[in-house]
Design a protein that fits this description.
The protein has 121 residues and is mainly beta. The chain has one helix and eleven strands; from the N terminus they run βββββββββαββ. β5 and β6 form a beta hairpin.
Length: 121
C-alpha cells in the first residue's frame, strides 16, 4: 500500500484546510484508515480514524472541527479541518493497516510522507 497526502499549507487561526490522501495498492476490507499528526517535540497523535466497519472516531482535541471521509472505492481519504488553531500545527500523515495493528503503540505500517499544516495566530 502506498499513500500520498496533499492539501497542506498555511492558514490563519479560524481558517480551513482540506487534506487528501490517495491510496494505491491493495486496501484490505479489514483495514482501519485515518490521519495522524506530529508536531515538533510532541508525540504522534491520531486525529481521525475510520475503522473496518465504517465507524469514525476523533480525539477530543479535534472533535467538532475535523471531519474524515473517503470515497466509495476506499482509495481516497479526506480530512476537512475547520476552525483551525495554532495548536493544530503539525505534519499530518495518512495511514492504513489492519485495525489490530493500527491501534498499537507502533501504529500502522502503511503511512504517507506527510503534509505540513501551519496555523498562525
Amino acid at each position: 500500500v502506498q499513500l500520498q497526502e496533499s492539501g497542506g499549507g498555511s492558514v490563519q487561526s479560524g481558517g480551513s484546510l482540506r487534506l487528501s490522501c490517495a491510496a494505491s495498492g491493495y486496501i484490505d476490507s479489514s483495514y482501519c484508515m485515518g490521519w495522524f499528526r506530529q508536531a515538533p517535540g510532541k508525540a504522534r497523535e491520531r486525529v481521525a480514524t475510520i475503522d473496518s466497519d465504517g465507524d469514525i472516531t476523533y480525539p477530543e482535541s479535534v472533535k467538532g472541527r475535523f471531519t474524515i471521509s473517503r470515497d466509495n472505492s476506499k482509495k481516497t481519504l479526506f480530512l476537512q479541518m475547520n476552525s483551525l488553531k495554532p495548536e493544530d500545527t503539525a505534519v499530518y500523515y495518512c495511514a492504513a493497516d489492519f485495525c489490530l495493528r493500527y491501534y498499537t503503540n507502533n501504529g500502522p505500517n502503511f503511512r504517507g510522507q506527510g503534509t505540513q499544516v501551519t496555523v498562525s495566530s
